[in-house]
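Handoff note, outgoing to incoming analyst
You'll be picking up this chain. Sequence as last confirmed:
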Amino acid sequence: MYSDGFVIVGASYAGVSFALHARKLGYTGPITIFTEEANVAYDVPSISKKLLPGTGDVPVFKSPILLEKADITVRAQTSVTAIDRVDRAITLSTGERVPFDYLVLATGTKAVVPPLFDGLSGVYVLKTLEDGERLLAALDVATRIAVIGGGVLGVEAAYGLRQRGLEVVLYERAPACLGRQVSPGLSTRIEDKLSAEGVVLYPGTSPDTARTEGNGIVLGTMGVESRFDAVLVCAGARPNTDLALQSRLPSAQGILIDRWFRTGDHHILAVGDCIEPEEDSTFEMNCLSVQHATETGKQAAEALIRDIPARPVVPTFWSALGEDMIKMAGYYDQRTSVDPAPDSPGHAATQSRDGTLRFVEALNDNMAYVKALKDMKT
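Most recent structure output, in case you need it:
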């Protein structure tokens, strides 16, 4: 039935989840995963959670042996440059053409880097394991670093770099760190934790100039300049739609999909953080959640092989700053207040909309988090 098999672009959670679940559902045809990276199926969140603070290595979430046993071919360090929708084939950077019956785009996201950093050396992002290794190499001669962006990644990176003994300055354009992800009460607690660890915070502030000076970078903010040995940009991410746009697949902020994860070409699916659902779909877009990416890959395999449409997913997130464990689930709405749990040993709060529990956040209160997550899933 599928002589040319399934071809997947991207070897992170969503793409690998699709491949393994297709096998679990009984698909026996060829499955090939292409990725530009040398490293395959590794735990991306561990780059900021373990690699930067030096508390551990970045583990794989599915071993190469498991993929090999499932008869899934992985071609690493291989770029896909074009999609031929008429003849159903992809073109690789080598010029090789690979036919497919169905193509799955699991292209993830790309780091957002403000234009003022264009062309400057000493500026780093943290999207891949290679990015993390490049940053660590630079830290051998660095003592002072600026982190741009106070979302989850920026907060974790600032904390981790501080644990390595560096002087860290964190700039966040919004009035507070994690202001779009958690309530003001939890945001304040997190900022207090960072300050206590020695991270210098500049909320409501973003550099407006940047220039190289010797081996460092000078950032300017409202006329005041500061010199750093390196700059780590954690200013957000956008869905990687490059290949889809080149192939004239309908895209807005992300690759548009229906409830069966189909793009404008029904022989091409999209999963993970690169997707943007159409109006009648189930998922919210670009959640940057491991659980969300894994579940979309799994459900896309079910949609293709069993004709089962998407079901709602409750994305989950966690972060650890030393002994403080932060957990979140669902979708936080800045326009709606949260209901704090009065007897929490740390901090816990929920948020409901239209009578339905939609979000929970917890700091050192796993019991409240688990209970709320269970209620959200039912």
